[in-house]
From TrEMBL:
It comes from Homo sapiens. The lineage of its organism: Eukaryota, Metazoa, Chordata, Craniata, Vertebrata. InterPro entries: Methyltransf_16 (IPR019410), SAM-dependent_MTases_sf (IPR029063). This is FAM86A. GO terms for biological process: methylation. Keywords: Methyltransferase, S-adenosyl-L-methionine, Transferase. One of its GO terms (cellular component) is protein-containing complex. The keyword S-adenosyl-L-methionine applies. Pfam families: Methyltransf_16.
Amino acid sequence: STQGHRSYLLPSGGSVTLSEITAIISYGTTGLVTWDAALYLAEWAIENPAVFTNRTVLELGSGAGLTGLAICKMCRPRA
């Protein structure tokens, strides 16, 4: 099967686990797998949490939602 779960470890020791479909163009979409850009942006956000702390964040997508979830867990955006 091309569907599975992938866990991404965070510097806090926590993790983000996503359901992904590795066939990147499945059902006419590319949003079912984590993009490389999401990994880089999540890493940058974790290294620069002050940019997001107490701010409203709208993550419009770079795959399966890793960046937004990492920011929520690590950068304390406004709830």
